[in-house]
Amino acid sequence: MTSHVVPAGPFDPPDVNWAPVSRKLASARLSMTAIVVGVPAVGGAVAALLSGIVWLWVIPGVFVALGLWAAWLIPRQVRAVGYAERADDLLIRKGIMFRSMVVVPYGRMQYVDVQAGPLARAFGIASVQLHTASPSSDAAIDGLTPVEATRLRDKLASRGEARLAGL
């Protein structure tokens, strides 16, 4: 009996163990979405209630529908984000429908920084941004715990220095 092996696609290289980001990233994104769609939804509901114009209820309805769609989509998006450290490069994958994978060779990294805005700090997450000579590289990993972000920053910086020095 011959077994059929499905070849790995461009987004699933063989022998790669993907590390997921923190689920707190979904909570942070959902909180921001709640603010962005909640304020207009409440404002539209108040306007519809005070004016008595029935068709104005469409406004809060649209924002509630957008909020429900985001509540379904955001956790799926966060589960699709991952990164993998290999011997010579770092892989970052994102996306569900429009997938992307960025491969950053350690020798191309110029510097690595960690960022955390007020909302990210409130949820206990941070982002690691990799900077290369190419201005178009999108090498960022959002939703890391501060400990993991620090570890990754230090490890990537040391690997980048070693590769840049030709070691």
Provide an overview of this structure:
Residues 79-155 form the YdbS-like PH domain. 45% of the residues lie in helices and 22% in strands. By secondary structure, it is α+β, with helices and mostly antiparallel strands. It folds into 2 domains: 24-77; 82-164, Roll (PH-domain like), CATH 2.30.29. Helix 1 (24-51) packs antiparallel against helix 2 (58-79). The longest helix has 28 residues, at 24-51.
Topology of this structure?
Elements: E1 19-20, H1 24-51, H2 58-79, E2 82-85, E3 89-94, E4 100-105, E5 109-115, H3 118-123, E6 126-132, E7 140-144, H4 146-164
Helix content: 40-55%
Structure summary, number of beta strands: 7
Work out the radius of gyration.
21 Å
Any idea what the shape is? elongated
Strand content: 15-25%
Q: What is the CATH third-level topology name of the largest domain?
A: PH-domain like
What can be said about this structure in brief?
The chain crosses the membrane at residues 30-49, 55-74. It holds the Pfam family bPH_2. With 167 residues, the protein is an alpha+beta fold.
